[in-house]
What does this fold into?
Amino acid sequence: MTVNQLLDERAAELGDKTAIFFRDEEIGYRQLNDRALAVASGLVARGVEKGRNVCLLIPNRLEFMYAFFGVMKAGAVAVPINTLLKGEEITYIINNCEAEVIIVTDEHIELVRTIKPDCTRLKHVISTAAGDDVIPFEQLLKTPVDENPPAVTEDEDASIIYTSGTTGRPKGVILTHGNYIADTRMMTESVGMSKDDRFLCILPLFHVNAQVVTTLGPLYAGASMVLLEGFSPKKFLPALARYKATAFSGVPTVYAILNNQPDAEQYDLSRLRFCVCGAAPMPVEVFNEFEKKYKAFILEGYGLSEGTCASSVNPLGGKRKVGSIGLPLEGQPMKIFDDNDNEAPQGTVGEIVVKGPNVMRGYYNNPEATEATLKNGWLHTGDLGYVDEEGYFYIVGRKKEMIIRGGENIYPKEVEEAVYRHPAVLEAAIVGLPDKVWGEEVAAFIVLKDEGALNEEDMIDYCKEHLADYKCPRKVFFVKDLPKTATGKIQKRKVVEQFVAEHGGET
It folds into this structure.
């Protein structure tokens, strides 16, 4: 089955049943399908060929839904772009995926106009904003539907999800229609999602968590999705109550913030069945406090973009182990490998690897990274963990030097490259420091060429010119030197250990 076929089937089966609640609008399954088909027909009429990549720079709005499904129905490949990125970061993605078309909403049209001359293959800008230099998105929605859209198989590409790489450049994760359907099926069956569910979406739609758990999951189950523009502590609880949501997916930071909401008791959350937590390990203290306060059942799981989304979860109806990432999803083997790619004994720490029909086809135009990550059919996650005697998996750290701040993946190399471009910087180490709210906070330890040539505020402002805000250091420490190995490599673990020892832990 393909994503296109799934939407066709649900539209025929459920008709006017609400697929999406957004603000005061209710979009039925048939209406969603019709608008996606119109977008597809409009793209094809404007020369978008099967297999071409189409970028989407759209926040959590209905336009994302129409474009995401519409691009796939055109036989093309959707490339959702993180809406928090800055111009040079977006330019790199557009050029790397060789996109000729981008669909953008009002919020980012001026940015796209600025970078368009640097996007070498970009021909068309489709936008909700007005202007002679854009194709109005409304025109696509009014395009007569082609009764014979391009045929697509489950082995063909559906999307490319860009995720930061250890080299400092984002890598495009290629996900097929089959990847999406397989992971969605595994996830929805594991949590017992039904047609009666209403799944609240607060995570950004450019992320696979929102695409699979709160978009395709309800679609697969014939349930409904409640789409919010994002997470707002003031709007979240009223929305949960207003729409009678039965479930939502969030990152640990969301749960930590909700624990501090003083007015939770005034809202009727009796329909809430369960909450999903992923993207980063949740502190046990936050976990227990949330369940006590909200009388809700948290399912902590694990996954990554290269595995489409979910790979394991604590079972809804079985034993749940707080602090673990649960059991592998049925049909998706998970193991712990040692450094020689042999299975490690039970309880021994090693690299988590997964296998299954949900595993990506590879990285776009990056055979070296693909070969290093996909070995003998196993996806090497870069995460360190172990498995207990009952088959439950635990994460203990990350093999790669990735920082997870509020559920967003940040790779130090990318930030370091920006920092090193400042002429006053001699050496730099970007690390994640423990933080109660964000899980980890980005910190820069810098050796200057001339002492006193730069202050903390100047460095942070400089980073904000070149990087998305969430990647920028919130703490900058100027030091005389950085710990190194005998070969001169900076020892980041020692940097963190020294900070924790001197400052008592968290930022």
Q: What stands out?
A: Residues 3-152 form a domain with the Rossmann fold fold (CATH 3.40.50.980). The radius of gyration is 23 Å. The longest strand covers residues 425-435. The chain has 15 helices and 27 strands.
